[in-house]
Design a protein that fits this description.
The chain starts with 20 loop residues before the first helix and ends with a helix. The protein has one domain: Tetracycline Repressor, domain 2 (Orthogonal Bundle), CATH 1.10.357.10. By secondary structure, the protein is mainly α. The chain is elongated and about 60 Å long. 65% of the residues lie in helices and 0% in strands. The chain contains ten helices and no strands. Helix 1 packs across helix 2 and helix 4 crosses helix 5.
Length: 209
């Protein structure tokens, strides 16, 4: 098995059918703990197995490889974020406030789950992630694209560029805020200035007056 930077042509998420939910939880916790602290190539599957109190055979049986294990756990966390986002959007009628809430939920999630951000920064190789079948987590990215499409359809968001460019603007700012939050030692709450950050973003993506 390749224990250096993953170079697979494509990585398919395991279905995890038959894996005990508690065992899965322990494995995912171990992945977060270990991969958040060290780069991908410095982590061995035996370490994950020991931390999760499962056999190495169990990990190979259900995940197949270190790459699939990492991306499966990351996808589970992104789906968790998406579910939280959808829940928070319920009952908000004003479009700008819905987008503001979406922005806030992402910042709040990574503030509450810094190890997820650390894992992405330390162990995820973007070129390999792009080859992953779930690189664009359907639930998470689909929610964002639905909100953006609504804004474009109602003439609220700038229609001079593709919706994916608007998504790049939003994700670019969110990613940078999360990255600097981690690198600077998590001193200040990510959400403390969320409204100010959002208003700056809004001026960039809203339809010009």
């Amino acid at each position: 098995m390749n224990e250096t930077a993953p170079e697979n042509e494509g990585i398919t998420l395991p279905t995890l059918d038959g894996l005990n939910p508690d065992t899965r939880r322990r494995i995912e916790e171990a992945v977060l703990e270990i991969f958040a602290e060290r780069e991908f190539y410095r982590v061995g599957l035996i370490e994950v197995a020991r931390a999760a109190n499962v056999s190495l055979q169990t990990i190979y049986k259900y995940y197949g490889s270190k790459e699939a294990l990492l991306f499966s756990c990351l996808d589970a966390r992104l789906s968790e974020l998406a579910a939280r986002m959808i829940d928070h959007l319920q009952g908000i009628a004003d479009y700008k406030e819905r987008l503001r809430k979406t922005f806030w939920v992402v910042l709040d999630y990574f503030e509450q789950n810094p190890r997820v951000a650390q894992l992405i920064l330390s162990s995820v190789y973007v070129n390999t992630w792009r080859k992953h079948a779930n690189y664009q987590n359907p639930l998470l990215f689909g929610t964002f694209m639905k909100v953006l499409a609504e804004g474009r359809g109602r003439g609220i968001l700038n229609d001079a560029v593709d919706e994916k460019i608007l998504l790049d603007y939003i994700f670019g700012i969110l990613a940078r805020l999360v990255q600097t939050h981690v690198h600077r030692g998590n001193g200040n709450a990510l959400t403390a200035n969320a409204n100010t950050y959002f208003e700056m973003l809004w001026r960039a993506i809203a339809t010009p007056d």
